[in-house]
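Title: Prediction job returns without error message
Component: structure pipeline
Severity: low
Priority: P3
Assignee: unassigned

Description:
Job completed but the reporter wants confirmation the result is attached to the right record. Sequence as submitted:
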Amino acid sequence: MSAHLIAEQGWSYKELWEGAILASIAHAIFVADAPELAHENSWDGFNYNFNDSQGIRGTITFHPDFFVAAFRNDEVLADSLNFEDYFHQAPKKVLQLAEEEALQYLLDDVRGKTLPSITTIIWGEKEQTFSSHRFDEMLENGGKILAIQSMNVTESLKACEEEFEFTQEQLMLLKKLYHLKIAQPNEKITLNQSDIEAIGSKNEEGINESKILFAEIGIEWI
């Protein structure tokens, strides 16, 4: 398959990473009252996993120098391509990283073998991002799940407020934690009592799930 340059805003390494952080914080706040949806957004090291519970899921692996993302949309799984075909024009290092990391979260029974089952990929370095499909096809094949993550910060905050029905206290907490994390990505952040009160949950299961999700991105409850 040919490589297609993604020129649209929101799809660079930096933009996707920052969008993933914002979405992850929002999800961790939300899950405190909705633990049954904890699986929809998580981190495993530098692997960011997402699932819309409606047939689309994927993983972005944020290597320090480049990234690769693989998606699966169950509605278009009639595609008979082998997973290697999606990487036809990708650098070898991208395929190697994908095989070692991102694709390990998308394994399925493929013709009697346990193999990655995907419908589109993207990859890139700091400035340029490429896809195995044209932009609109990439979205339809699974990339549309990153709608919030690929928005600018203002739009993303508004989308989170509407989707999760955040209170003003929760929205302010999201903004605070996002800016702290982006400014100091490797520093541990600890929620204080005021932050916990802003989350506003009394759901024990939800609180436990929220703590797990926050810890995955270096944010701890006191």
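Comment from assignee: result matches the submitted record. The two ends are 49 Å apart (CA to CA).
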